[in-house]
Amino acid sequence: xxFLKIAKDDWTxxxxxxxxxxxxxxxxxxxxxxxxxxxxxxxxxxxxxxxxRLSPKSTVYPQSEILFEYTLDESKADHHVHKVPEKDYSPxxxxxxxxxxxxxxxxxxLNFDTPExxxxxxxxxxxxTTKVGLACDDPCSTCFxxxxxxxxxxxxxxxVLLADRDDHFLAKVxxxxxxxxxxxxxxxxxxPDAEAGFEKLAAEAEGKVPGGVPTDKLADKxxxxxxxxxxxxxxxxxxxxxxxxxxxCPTCWCFDIQDEVKGAEGVRMRNWDSCMFPLFTLHxxxxxxxxxxxxxxxxxxxxxxxxFVDRYGRGIQxxxxxxxxxxxxxxxxxxxxxxxxxxxxxxxxxxxx
Length: 353
Ligand code: SF4
Ligand code: SF4
Description:
By secondary structure, the chain is α/β, with parallel strands linked by helices. The chain has helices at about 10-20, 100-110, 120-125, 175-185, 195-210, 225, 230-235, 245, 295-310, 325, 335-345; strands spanning about 1-5, 25-30, 35-40, 65-70, 90-95, 130-135, 160-165, 170-175, 255-260, 265-270. It has a 7-stranded mixed β-sheet, sandwiched between helices. Strand 9 (about 255-260) and strand 10 (about 265-270) form a beta hairpin. The radius of gyration is 23 Å and the shape is globular. The N and C termini lie far apart (about 70 Å). The mean pLDDT is about 95. The structure holds iron/sulfur cluster (2 copies). One iron/sulfur cluster binds near residues 241, 242, 243, 276 and 332.
């Protein structure tokens, strides 16, 4: 680990040099929102954002992705052969990712990189990716990363962490990928005395993050009792099952697999899916184990705040980015639900009459 100072009057040159050896993704403003896009020549990342509307998960895990192609035309030699289309796994950089979103990749990895199963598509893209974080000195009112095991200067999942210091960036280079990144950009001005100042900035930023979202008792709750808690009807009442909360969440990973066939040519693809949709759990028999809105809303929160906690023992499946809080059209708030779940006590059993 080492610190560098990157002068802003050298920023444009460095980013353009980077593009010679990396595909560079960064936040750009479109209408009122910021989102991550591949930056063409001459386009710089716009760092005047608090957080992007969508998380950058699609840079590794596209919303729709072809897994393989095939032909059913038996006159062709390769009929019924699964052919993986050519994919671009050349080195890429996500420039300006917030620390919460970088940490989210580490949580999602638990799903795509297991001892039993390694998703080749997700892993190839992930391994090709260098994550260059932008520390968060101005958190949104809906952020709660410090309650969710992350923080505005969290280094988890990052290769470099940048702190914006007006006329320059302080860069904390964390990994070999990070070294390759600064080398490709030609940034090499050492800042050996920066560590104490960096820690002070981190402490100041953490103090600005709205806190008070308790999760400490979730692991101790009895799952069946929590599932049967009487607050779920109230929590779910206004939900319209739009799926917004899951699509913009950096830690949601669910997908559906579909075949699309035209004539004799077909592709198998996977598309992001949402546990908030009625079709998500519809069985071929017509039975739906989560047929009601309450079932689906409860599933989302139980998965993030209870099942994940119990299965992995490493906190909640949420990094506190606040997107679902700020974008839910009916103001369903995971911070409130976490409090309800954390404080839940089952009603005492009544004595038989
Ligand atoms: S964004 Fe809100 S209304 Fe839409 S599915 Fe999620 S909780 Fe329901
Ligand atoms: S659950 Fe909400 S706050 Fe948590 S990571 Fe997902 S979008 Fe962000």
